[in-house]
Amino acid sequence: MLKKWIIIIPLLFVSSCIDKKKVENQPHPQTTCVKHVKNSIREINSIDQVKEIAEHYIQLGFCPRDILTIFDVDETLLSSYAEKNSIKKIIRSRELFPYIAQKILLHNLSEDDIKQIGKDNININNKKLKQLLNKPFLDAVSRKTYTMLATLYKSKRLKTQPVQNNTVHILDSLEKCGIKTMGLTARGFDLAQTTLQQLRDVGIDFSKHTIYNCQHMLNQVHGFVQGFIFCTPGAPHFDKGKLLTKFFTEICYCPRVIIFTDDYLHFVKSV
Question: What is the pLDDT of residues 168-210, one digit of tens each?
């Protein structure tokens, strides 16, 4: 199982805020949090540990509804796989993204290549990638990579399943305790509906107990819908931490504890 990183952020309420959009039934709707008390980054290997940490804060006297657990999607909630002759082959996003990027950079990505993903071994020439992956190409490659991913997911040539067998059970138990959940993913907003359907297909639906009931665009390419913030890679202002802060500020929402889980340490540090 891939290791994951988790950041725990207790927050202080230090300034007031007026919400013209009238956010209803939210904890502390009239406050904005701008100061971290003490952040803690840990390495974990199971989503069970998220529940344990949240329960620890409840034991310390925090109200469950003021604790927000945030999850990345790929390799945290969902893993991708291809199926051949009824045999599943897990395709790690760490392999898949560079593979598609490499094909794009070499200008030889074809429909046949897409069909073969998951059937053959994924070979990545990292040395060649480093030579080609300079700044002028970077943003365009990222956008094209996610376009290809959208094709793979929408055509169901790549399928998804929960990372752990008990992923859905842990998420349900958090919600039953009154702990809020949401998603923060580096999948682009153009993959929002496909991603939400993939999650629903395995029993994950953050819209039932969402912190905000409306779709909310943070700009033209990043936005929140049905419990998830979709951050479009390669687009301007792509930064999970800054987009999360912007979202909280615009809806005037502030939990007292944030627990964010991601398989990439730099995304955790950005929050």
Answer: 999 999 999 999 999 999 888 888 998 999 999 999 999 988 9
- 26-55 pLDDT, tens digit per residue, is 444 333 333 344 678 888 888 999 999 999
**117-128: average pLDDT:** 49
Tell me: do 191 and 89 sit in the same domain: no
pTM, whole model, 2 decimals? 0.76
Same domain, 198 and 265: yes
For residues 53 and 106, state if they share a domain. Answer: no
- Selection from 224, 158, 200, 210 nearest residue 180 by Cα: 210
Residue 64 and residue 79: Cα distance in Å, rounded? 29
What span, in angstroms and rounded, lies between the C-alpha atoms of 97 and 172? 30
Residues, the chain: 271
User: Do both 132 and 256 map to the same domain?
Assistant: no
Domain range for 260 is 4-77+163-270
Other C-beta atoms lying within 10 Å of the C-beta of residue 183: 22
Query: Tokens 């969402």 sit at which residue?
Result: 210
52 and 136 housed in the same domain: no
Q: Indicate whether 51 and 112 sit together in one domain.
A: no
CA dihedral 145, 148, 152, 158 (to 10 degrees): -20
* Cα→Cα distances 145→104, 142, 188, 217, Å: 8, 5, 10, 22
Backbone phi and psi for residue 7, each to the nearest 5 degrees, phi listed first: -120, 135
Q: Which of 131, 159, 187 is the last residue of a domain?
A: 159
